[in-house]
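Moderator note: this is an archived Q&A kept for reference. The question asked for a predicted structure of one protein chain; the sequence and the answer are reproduced below.
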Amino acid sequence: MVPGSAAGSVRARYLVYFQYLGTDFNGVAAARGAQRAVGVQNYLEEAAARLNSVVPVKFTISSRTDAGVHALSNTAHLDVQRRSGQPPFSPEVLVEALNTHLKHPAIRVLQAFRVPSDFHARYAATSRTYLYRLATGCPRPSQLPVFERNLCWALRADCLDVDAMQEAAQHLLGTHDFSAFQSTGSPATTSVRTLRRVSVSPGPASTFVLPQESSRLRFWSLEFESQSFLYRQVRRMTAVLVAVGLGALTPAQVKVILDSQDPLGKYQSRVAPAHGLFLKSVLYGGLGTLVRGVGHEGVCTRLWPPP
């Protein structure tokens, strides 16, 4: 009998990729008990309850996001234990079933893989990338297209000094103690992290901007890649880089802030709005894309252990 199975039933573990607009949710994590707030996980587990698993299905989320933060692609692992004599769901059937039973239109399951029973979506992740979207040329909130209002941070300034922001970002690259960019409430045992990549670049033009507004409104993208991040680290680094872009800080001052390890300073204590942030991707060793490394019957043969 497979460990964890009952009465001859077989437990299958899956890695699931899913996306969501975070506007309506109190973060990705489930809200338990009598709380009125609802997380993305609540809806995922409600949909999974319709799978009739012998043991209730729980999603173990790889990357927690705050209220209002979006995800182009987050991941989780889950176990489904069907009744004796019933074969495990194929990954394709699992995705279709979850999407069918999801009761919120702002959540979509993208893809699933069978993984070994000891796979862990959070601890096996080798890379996480966050995208932050900015808009310039918005003296008033009403000047931003309604379709963009929960998807970027609208700045009153007409432009940003992107060269200075890129120079400042170089000070954040590498392995550092990022205490200065950590908000209270972090469960992390160490504030040392390795920022592998940070970029500041013009973003693609929004399809929602009218032609007569295109000369005024511009969009910008900040991307950060690391194996893991501290609580609100990305939003606090974004706020500092925006301060550089607006001329309130020099690139050299960013290094001073980083070295200070002081999270309560004037600039590093500022947190960029949640609605401009997207979890872009979560990667695993041996699974560079959603489809690479998938073996027979959707079992991910190269995913675990990581190389």
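Archived answer notes: Residues 233-245 form the longest helix (13 residues).
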